[in-house]
Amino acid sequence: MGRNLKLKKESDFEFTKNHKRLLLGSVFLMATSAIGPAFLTQTAVFTSQFFASFAFAILLSIIIDIGAQINIWRILVVTGLRGQEISNKVVPGLGTVISILIAFGGLAFNIGNIAGAGLGLNAIFGLDVKWGAAITAIFAILIFVSKSGQKLWTLFQ
CB 3.0–4.6 Å: which of 5, 32, 103, 112 could bond 38 by disulfide? Predict the structure, then answer.
């Protein structure tokens, strides 16, 4: 089952320093993409409550995340296929299921970011969390529908 993945011939592929640089760059980009307002707010709260035991959990989570990302990207680079294509070759239809799960995960992640920004505005300005989240959501929507959204986006990075 799933053993018929078409890999590039080993003789055709050479893992160079440039490949390693690109692979590590993509791994760290994906690892840091999980850092948003909600993550930072909750990390601060839990760190103040649980101290060293929580720091160990964060460190362990980071190590596991980087290891998983490196393995995933190696598979994608060596096969030359997209993730959903590999999944469909392993179990037909699995790529579609994973794509749907990723879309829902992205939605949940961004809801968490809006909520975290609402918490941040509450901490800074004393705004109600719901109003802070609403203001943040409206602001984000305006940036993304604006024709000059890319210029606006770079102002906040």
Answer: 112
Write out pLDDT tens, residues 94-123: 999 999 998 998 888 888 889 888 988 998
Instruction: Kindly report whether the global pTM for this prediction surpasses the value 0.70.
Output: no
At 69, list the tokens. 């990302």
Give CA–CA dist 146/108, Å, rounded. Answer: 24
User: Where in the chain are the domains?
Assistant: 13-80, 95-157
Nearest CA to 2 out of 74, 87, 101 is that of: 87
Residue listed under structure tokens 């109600």 = 128
Token couple for 134? 């609403």
3-state SS track over the chain: CCCCCCCCCCCCCCCCHHHHHHHHHHHHHHHHCCCCHHHHHHHHHHHHHHHHHHHHHHHHHHHHHHHHHHHHHHHHHHHCCCHHHHHHHHCCCHHHHHHHHHHHHHHHHHHHHHHHHHHHHHHHHCCCHHHHHHHHHHHHHHHHHCCCHHHHHHHCC
